[in-house]
What does this fold into?
Amino acid sequence: MRLTDITIRTLKAPKKGVVLYSDDALSGFGVRVSQAGTKSFVLTHGPRRQRETIGRVGIISLSEARTEAKRRLAQYTLGKDKPKAITWNAAKDEYLAEREPELSAHTNRAYRYYLGRTFRYGTTKLTDITPYDLSHSLAKLNHTPVCQRYAYTTIRAFMRWAHRKHYLDRNPMERMQCPHPYVPRERVLSDAELARVWEAAGDDTFGRIVKLLILTGQRRGEVAQLKGSMIGTDTITLPAPLCKNRRSHTFPLGALAWTFLDPEMEADEYFFKGRGKETPFDGWSKCKPKLEERAGVKEWTLHDLRRTFASGLAAQGVSIPVIERLLNHISGSFGGIVGVYQRYDYLPEMRDAIEKWENHISRLVGAE
It folds into this structure.
């Protein structure tokens, strides 16, 4: 097709992966559309059909992108010079556009945040960024160890990608160590603490999310992004792009959990909306401290409810494989060759486990 501003606006996103729409007017030039709907101008050239990103649709215009594509094609065809060393901003934009279809929404937001806020190198050539520059940027987060560790893992993944793309002859992070190695948390809420958190959670949006986290053991980002299309007759199915391990996850719902859901909601409607927005709930930083104060339970995180769920099921006599199925874990019991050939869904066993857990919670909170 001949790309125009109108046709670009009507390009549809694929159900999975990315799709390339080529421009009939300029060989090799086109628009790549990701599963999430992100559109980028790209140029494919050379005997090896090397593809490079020119820029995001909306940030640069079609005419600007086509002019830049012609300029690059002329340089490569005439052999006057090799592609210029890529800048930080250009490499960052290409990396984010390439990884977006592969990563969860939460991880994409984190990558954009740290690459855009912690590491600000602008038009500096990627090859000119030194280990000292990276260390200096990371040092600014010394007062927030958790954020510093996330920033480190983000820039490490980016630099490895740049090295694989041959934008760098040598990875500047090859001898750098994580400033704060990950130490798994061990916090498990007691039955008394769990009951206080439940009582203090209330019936507002955040309270219902917390109660579903207690009852299902799922991740907060997954529960907050529930849509009507994910709710079945007695199960919830989380699509692969939403899950941390990129595998869809179906788990049963108990009677108590059903009281916090509306099976009649629209298929594309977020159940837990942000205030006044058609977006997932995102008021964690404001709501969580208030819940702590009301409950009188200190030094715990929402993710600790997932660990409490798993530990509580084990105490109820539920087997480890069933617990791992409920948590959507693919390591442990389902790692290696088992994960390849073992396809039993464990739904009956998961239903029994959820029933035991809901009975336990009902006794704790007086909901029987």
Notes: The two ends are 63 Å apart (CA to CA).
